[in-house]
Amino acid sequence: TEIRGEILQALRRAGDRFVSGEELGQRFGISRTAVWKHIQALQGVGYPIEAVRNRGYRLREEGEELRPEAIQAGLATSVLGRHMTVLETVDSTNRYAFAEAEGGAPEGYTVLAERQTAGRGRRGRPWFSPPGHGIWMSVVLRPTFPVFRAPQLTLMAAVSVAEAIRERAGVSVGIKWPNDLLLPDGRKVCGILSEMSAEAEEIRFIVLGIGINVFGREEDFPPELRGVAGSLAQPGSPISRTALIQGLLGRLEADYRIYQNEGFRAFREGWERLNVSLGRTIAVQTQSGQKIGWARRIDDDGALWVETDEGRLEKIISAEVIFDPGS
Ligand code: BTX
Predict the structure, then answer these.
(1) If you take atom 9 of ligand 1, which residue's CA is the nearest one?
(2) pLDDT of res. 45
(3) Cα 50 to ligand 1 centroid, rounded to whole Å
(4) Beta-carbon neighbour count of residue 60 at 10 Å?
């Protein structure tokens, strides 16, 4: 499997060019038949590798094509992903799912796109979503709990997504409060954006949007994101987006059930175990300005408690967290 990852890497580097079986065999010290077997195994887990006689192999794009039938065939859910739309291009899967939910789309309705032209992050920030490189997904939820419980649902989702990534992609990601997922080297690999439609105290629906960088290489990111954003795929560990989506929806459904009965309390420990924010010096950017302090703990509501220099404990409900690189 070590070689398998390296073959994949060699094909990635070759871009549009074909690489012959002979060349690959020589490079890795194996026979052409062995190369062919590795290629078949890679195709088996979803990599769209073309094999053309007398020319060799070529990786058509970064990931396998996303198909609803293939995703649903291995889905262990009863609600999430049972209705699904996979689009080639959309402005934002959250925007699309929101409109569908307003039109009556049922709970669990899931929208995926190969590419978003106006993927959105929090506070109107953009989310970079190039074709074939990631999982850009939105799920419609119609919970019966009151509006005040909605914000912590996003924290729960961070735990679910982190665990699905570990199970299906073999990468240990950490959670940065409130719900960014970071690679072990600190680069951001996933963002979660939930948007809600509510009337007074009653939630009509929530659109849970999840963006995960799966295949993007450093040079695929725009300059301002290099060193800041990272992807799951590493040489030697091929990842199937289809399998990851199945794992994600399975986890989310199970966790969402627990959340409805028990609230964030049930996820606090899991969140703490995965978190990389507590015990560090951080700057928190709130609407009322910036504060610097020591991230002490989160509570059952998912709020962050920060100890300032004067020894005061402050409860932070919503803010941007900036890590002190020296802490
Ligand atoms: P956020 O506001 O925490 O993150 C946005 C910030 O993250 C940007 O300002 C930029 O610095 C950085 N960023 C942008 N694109 C990427 C990327 N691909 N990888 C890493 N960092 C990036 C996080 O918001 C919530 C993002 C949710 C995205 C999903 S995708 C499916 C769904 N549809 C949709 O329009 N949004 C959600």
Answers:
(1) 125
(2) 67
(3) 32
(4) 14
The 8-class DSSP code of residue 223 comes to G
User: Are residues 221 and 90 part of one domain?
Assistant: yes
Domain count, the chain: 3
Give the residue among 32, 215, 234 at the shortest CA–CA distance from 40. Answer: 32
What is the whole-number distance in angstroms between the Cα of residue 138 and the centre of ligand 1? 13
Same domain (yes/no): 136, 205: yes
Residue tagged 């007074």 (tokens): 200
For ligand 1, atom 7, the nearest C-alpha belongs to 127
pLDDT in tens, 80-110: 999 999 998 999 999 999 999 999 999 999 9
Are residues 255 and 288 part of one domain? no
**Among the atoms of ligand 1, which is closest to the Cα of residue 125?**
9
At residue 253, the pLDDT reads 98
- What single DSSP character describes residue 231? -
**CATH code of 123's domain:** 3.30.930.10
* Interface predicted TM-score of the whole assembly (ipTM), two decimals: 0.99
CB 110 near ligand 1, within 6 Å: no
Which atom number of ligand 1 is nearest to the Cα of residue 210?
29
Indicate which atom in ligand 1 lies nearest the CA of residue 224: 11
Residue 123 CA: nearest ligand 1 atom is 2
For residue 222, the 8-state DSSP code is -
Question: For a substitution probing ligand 1, which of 96, 111, 127 has the most ligand atoms within 8 Å of its CB?
Answer: 127
What domain range is 52 assigned to? 2-59
The confidence score (pLDDT) of residue 63 equals: 66
Residue among 77, 80, 81, 52 at smallest CA distance from 66: 81
Q: Are residues 236 and 190 in the same domain?
A: yes
Q: Tens digits of per-residue pLDDT, 128-181?
A: 998 888 999 999 999 999 998 998 999 999 999 999 999 999 899 999 998 899
Residue with CA nearest ligand 1 atom 24: 121
Percentage above 90 pLDDT, the chain: 70
Enumerate residues 6+ apart whose C-beta is below 8 A from 29.
Answer: none
